[in-house]
TrEMBL record:
The keyword Manganese does not apply. GO terms for cellular component: plasma membrane. The gene is naiP_1. It is a multi-pass membrane protein. Keywords: Membrane, Transmembrane, Transmembrane helix. Its main location: membrane. The lineage of its organism: Bacteria, Bacillati, Actinomycetota, Actinomycetes, Mycobacteriales. This is Putative niacin/nicotinamide transporter NaiP. The chain crosses the membrane at residues 12-31, 43-62, 74-91, 97-120, 132-154, 160-180, 240-261, 281-302, 309-330, 336-357, 369-393, 399-420. It is found in: Cell membrane. GO terms for molecular function: carboxylic acid transmembrane transporter activity. It comes from Nocardia aurantia.
Length: 433
């Protein structure tokens, strides 16, 4: 581990930061958008879901392209796409055009994070890989948090257009990303051994130039295999079938609970409890800030406790808190904020840990495809969750809403705790075999 790793983590992490920033802006702009276009809660849910549908498609496309053409080209292309589309949303005067831009932006948002996590995981060593990758991943919820902080001032004072215009800022990261080497692991998996050696030599050169001391290589016995493109069907064959089913179901349930609530909280506060927009946005800041704390805690604990225990227990505790919200916490906006903040401490941590875990359980040649499949299941949850909330706000009760989310989190925790494979302190090659 060296300063080069830190530099790579910061550069790619900055892209992930703005992914998180752009992803949640729609939640804080929604009260204004609903008033502008006279949207019911159900109609507003589809505006939010348009981004989730794009993210689902982006997750699948991003993984397929990342396994074919490399990690960094996909990260860079996704960043440019979601940044430009954010600017398009800022200047949209009609609802159909706004939704179209949001959908296309979602493709970029969905493709970037899973592939970026693959890159960081592939340049990490086995010892404390969980901490290294998750501390990088923490930048994503920090982006969510800053999005809520910025939105709480920009939306009431300048309007939602300026909020989306800020989404163009990531373009300045382009020169930094172009100077990073491609993942040596991916290059080797494609049979490009000369390029892999050149990339690794370049990394080692920077480490030595900065005063680092390289340890002696520890060769591993790896069976030779002809380079081949991963197929989606392989995720459901042999040892990977169980892993894929567990991952897909856990992603779906976690993102259903997480984004179903967070994307609607500002609107829920203003429409159901009639609090001011400023108060609603400040409540959302608290919930997101507590979630960031949960992400830091899981990053520090996951290498010691293990992936299986961390993820399953966090989902089970989140489920209990959501059930308690349904029983005692729906009487006021403040109570909803307190209970949702408590559950976000655990749900946010699972969202983060799933990226790490999914990168570990597949071999390099199909890693991005596996992560993208998990991400796509998560994006499906991001579509179903907000639509469910929107419908229940128009036709149901808050108690029913929180009971549903508690049951979904419970199912995810039981599935992961019962069937997931532990991966801590193993090399990626050991886990894949």
């Amino acid at each position: 581990m060296s300063r080069w790793h830190v530099k790579a983590r910061v550069a790619v992490g900055a892209v992930t930061f703005f992914d998180g920033f752009d992803q949640l802006m729609i939640a804080y702009a929604m009260p204004k958008l609903a008033a502008k276009w006279h949207l019911t809660s159900t109609a507003g849910s589809w505006v939010i879901a348009a981004g989730g549908i794009g993210m689902l498609i982006g997750s699948l496309l991003g993984g397929r392209f990342a396994d074919r053409i490399g990690r960094l080209p996909v990260v860079i292309g996704a960043m440019v796409l979601y940044s430009v589309m954010s600017l398009g949303m800022a200047f949209s005067d009609t609802l159909p055009l706004f939704v179209l831009f949001r959908f296309v932006q979602g493709i970029g948002l969905g493709a970037e994070v899973p592939v970026a996590t693959c890159y960081i995981g592939e340049v990490s060593k086995a010892h404390h890989r969980g901490r290294f990758v998750l501390l990088y991943e923490t930048i994503f919820p920090v982006g969510l948090l800053l999005s809520s902080v910025v939105s709480s001032w920009v939306v009431p004072h300048l309007g939602y257009r300026w909020l989306f215009a800020v989404g163009l800022i990531p373009i300045v990261l382009l020169p930094v990303l172009l100077r990073l080497p491609e993942s040596p692991r991916w290059l080797a998996s494609r049979g490009r051994l000369t390029d892999a050696d050149a990339a690794l030599t370049r990394i080692e050169g920077e480490i030595v130039a900065a005063g680092g001391v390289l340890p002696e290589p520890r060769p591993m016995t790896v069976a030779a295999a002809a380079p081949q493109t991963a197929r989606l069907a392989e995720l459901f064959q042999g040892v990977y079938l169980r892993r894929t089913l567990v991952i897909g179901f856990t992603w779906l349930t976690t993102f259903f609970a997480n984004y179903g609530l967070t994307s609607w909280l500002p609107t829920l506060y203003t429409k159901t409890f009639k609090v001011s927009l400023n108060t609603a946005l400040h409540y959302s800041i608290v919930t997101t800030a507590v979630g960031v704390v949960g992400c830091v805690l899981v990053a520090l604990l996951i290498d010691g406790i293990g992936r299986r225990v961390c993820i399953s227990v966090a989902l089970l505790v989140a489920s209990a808190l959501l059930f308690l919200t349904a029983a005692t916490g729906t009487g006021s906006a403040f109570r909803v904020m307190l209970w949702c903040s408590a559950s976000s401490l655990f749900v946010f941590s699972v969202t983060l840990a799933l990226y790490l875990y999914t990168t570990e359980v597949y071999p390099t040649r199909m890693r991005a495809l596996g992560v993208s499949f998990g991400g796509a299941c998560g994006r499906l949850g991001m579509v179903i969750g907000p639509v469910t909330v929107g419908w229940l706000l128009d036709h149901g009760t808050l108690r029913t809403l929180f009971l549903i989310f508690g049951a979904v989190a419970l199912a995810g925790g039981l599935a992961f705790g019962g069937f997931a494979t532990e991966t801590k302190e193993k090399t990626l090659e050991e886990i894949a075999s």
